[in-house]
Amino acid sequence: MLLDVLTIVCATALAVSIHFHAGLQTLALAAWHGTWMQVRSMGALVVLLFGFATALIVISRQMHLYTPRRLNGILHEQRLSAQACLYSGLLLIAALYLIHADDIPRSLVLIALGLVTVLLSLRRLIYRLMIYRHFERGVGTRNVLVVGTGPEARALRHHLESIRHLGYVFKGFIDYPGSVSRSRIAVAPGDVVGTFDTLFENARKQFVDEIFFTTRCERGVMHKVLERARLQGVDLRVVPDMYDGLAWNSPIEYIGQFPTIPLHSGRVAETGLLLKRGMDILLAILTLAVFAPLLLAIAVAVKLDSHGPVLYFSDRIGKRGRLFRCIKFRTMVRDAEQRRADMMHMNERDGVLFKISNDPRITRLGRFLRKYSLDELPQLVNVLRGDMSIVGPRPPLASEVQEYKLSHLRRLDVMPGITGLWQVQARQDPSFDSYISLDVAYVENWSVWLDVKILLRTIGAVLAGTGT
């Protein structure tokens, strides 16, 4: 919506510029110049622009132009966008007639409407193509489980995998009693990830966003599944022509060419997440710009202090199990990873964590960098790339995640961060349970204000040199 408003303002400004520099309607132009600075003309123009933008937003929302891009095709979205501009333009022209705004040239209005239509369509096309590129990188996709192993289930799986721009990632079939395949083509055993009894356990392990039902089950059972889906924040869809009465008054949404009936759709704090991402980008750019000389000095010092590369790259597990390369200044000797196995008996942390207070692998400069968390500064690049956030649970190693219990995976529901609740509240606590519980508490109670408070406490923790 914000992008649409900005597009309308830019299109209007461009229309005014074109109108005044193209020599259109000379007589009207002179009259317009005479009234341009008058309060009535300026006030009318601002009010009309505000009303047009409001009408366009409301109409676009009614046409579902702000629903996820995967649910509408490009041509369908472009047609609805032009239609919304047409309806809003008709309302604008009617308003001009009612208020007798004769001092506003009609040619200017027509140019503005044309530019708004073109620029809005172009903006939505570019935005959609950017989303498709994110899907190709595995960003913003939605993991899917399909209940049933019949021909409908296999067809749905093929459909989701063949149309990549839908943004769905198939995670497996769930075998349901009685959903025997009615065709000669059998489902590969490896594609069936669990039974109906372990549906939500598998959904948790696979970081599933949506569950598709392609087989009929009892109404009471479906109600129980719906309640579990609501509690766990998993979206639920069924193929039409099922569950008489349960899906009454529910709209049919097309996933590509497949009609589905959404029984539950979880709410996402879109405004809060938008503010969080904007804050991440702003803080990352400002910090990199301000501390650029310090980053260069640290890079030179690391190179002079010990043999090895300046930066250390580590494969970490991010949001919903996504693998990414985490960047840090190197604080250990070159063969630190090879020596880790020989030092496991010195581990001072419990559970899956590994930490030694006087680790002999850490270089002299590395101890200083870790004490003041300066080794973490390159992770701002990860923030700009969208792999991490400024605030969030620390990204774990794959070996650590393999030892997680089912409840521990909750901390991977959000973007990992450079700092977090555990870092400012219990950094020296060796308890793995405390580490997990604080991260889960952050996920379940997240807000922009909580991020701000953690950031403020982080400044104090860094200045106090509590890092190890």
Structure write-up:
There is one protein chain. The protein is an alpha/beta fold and 468 residues long. α1 crosses α5, α4 runs antiparallel to α5 and α9 packs across α13. The longest helix is centred in the N-terminal third of the chain and has 31 residues. α14 links the parallel β10 and β11. It has a 7-stranded mixed beta sheet. It has a two-stranded antiparallel ribbon with strand order 8-9. The chain folds into 3 domains: 135 residues, no CATH class; 126 residues, Rossmann fold (3-Layer(aba) Sandwich); 194 residues, no CATH class. The relative contact order is 0.06. It contains 17 helices and 11 strands.
Judged by helices, strands and strand pairing, the structural class is alpha/beta
Low-confidence stretches: 24-39
Helix content: 40-55%
The count of β-strands is 11
Residue-averaged pLDDT: 82
Query: What general form does the structure show?
Result: flat
SSE layout and pairing:
Blueprint: H1 2-21, H2 26-35, H3 39-62, H4 74-98, H5 106-136, E1 142-147, H6 151-162, E2 168-175, E3 192-195, H7 199-205, E4 210-213, H8 219-232, E5 235-238, E6 253-255, E7 258-264, H9 270-290, H10 292-305, E8 311-317, E9 323-329, H11 336-340, H12 364-371, H13 379-385, E10 389-391, H14 398-401, E11 417-419, H15 421-425, H16 432-444, H17 448-464
Parallel strand pairs: 1-2, 1-4, 2-3, 4-5, 10-11
Antiparallel strand pairs: 5-7, 6-7, 8-9
Helix pairs in contact: 1-5, 3-4, 4-5, 9-13
